[in-house]
Amino acid sequence: MPDHSAPPRSLLLVGAVFACVVAAVVGVLVAPRPLPFTTDVLQRETSPEIYEPFGDAGDPEPVEVLLVRRYSLGGAVYTFQLGHDAENYFHEVTVPDATGAAGPPEIASVDWTPDEITVRLASGHAVVVPAEKAVGHR
After folding, report:
1. Alpha-carbon Rg of the chain, whole angstroms?
2. Taking the alpha carbons of 10, 11, 12, 14 in that order, is the dihedral positive or negative?
3. Which residue ranges traverse the bilayer (predicted)?
4. Residue 32 and residue 12: Cα distance in Å, rounded?
5. Where on the phi/psi map is residue 107: left (φ > 0), alpha (ψ -120 to 50), or beta?
6. Which of 34, 92, 114, 133 is the most exposed place for a label (fewest CB within 10 A)?
7. How far is CA 137 from the centre of its chain?
8. For residue 86, how many other CB atoms are within 10 A of its CB?
9. What is the mean pLDDT of the chain?
C-alpha cells in the first residue's frame, strides 16, 4: 500500500519555486528606490573654474553637471549629478517627470553663478541647485 502521508517531490519543488518568486516580487515592490540595472551618462557640462572647494580648501575648480539615466524594473529614472568629480562624488537631483518632453530630458544650457547652478532643459523647464551642494570634497 502506498504511503500517502508525504507529498510528492514535484509538489515540494513547485512550492519552493513559487515561494521564491513571491519573495522576489515582494522585494521589488517594497524597495525604496528602483533597483538599477544599467547607468548611462547622457550629457556632461563643465563650469568655468569659479567654484572654491568646500571650506576654501584650495584654488577654484570647475564643477560638472551630468545627466544620468538609470534603467531598472520601474523603467528609466533621470538624475543630475553635480560635483567637482561628478562621476564619483556628487550631489544628486532627480529630474522631474513632468518636464514636457516626449523623450528623455536634454540639457539645453547651464547658468553658472557663484551662488547657484541653473540647469535649463530643452523642454523649457529649469532646475536650480545651490552651488554649495556641488562643491564638496571627500
Report:
1. 24
2. positive
3. 12-31
4. 32
5. beta
6. 114
7. 20
8. 22
9. 80
pTM, two decimals, is 0.68
Q: Is the dihedral of CA 97, 98, 99, 105 positive or negative?
A: positive
All three cell numbers of 137: 570634497
Question: What is the C-alpha to C-alpha distance for residues 75 and 81, in angstroms, rounded to an integer?
Answer: 19
Could you tell me the pLDDT band of residue 99, with boundaries at 50, 70 and 90? Answer: low
Pairing of strands 36-46, 116-121: unpaired
CA nearest to 135, candidates 67, 89, 78: 89
Q: Which residue has the higher pLDDT, 89 or 98?
A: 89
Which of 3-17, 42-56, 101-115 has the lowest average pLDDT?
A: 3-17
Contact present, 105 and 121 (Cβ < 8 Å):
yes
d(CA 110, CA 24): 41
Q: Which value, to the nearest 10 degrees, does the dihedral of the CA atoms of residues 66, 68, 91, 44 take?
A: 0
Neighbouring residues of 137: CB distance < 8 A, sequence distance ≥ 6: 53, 54, 57, 84, 89
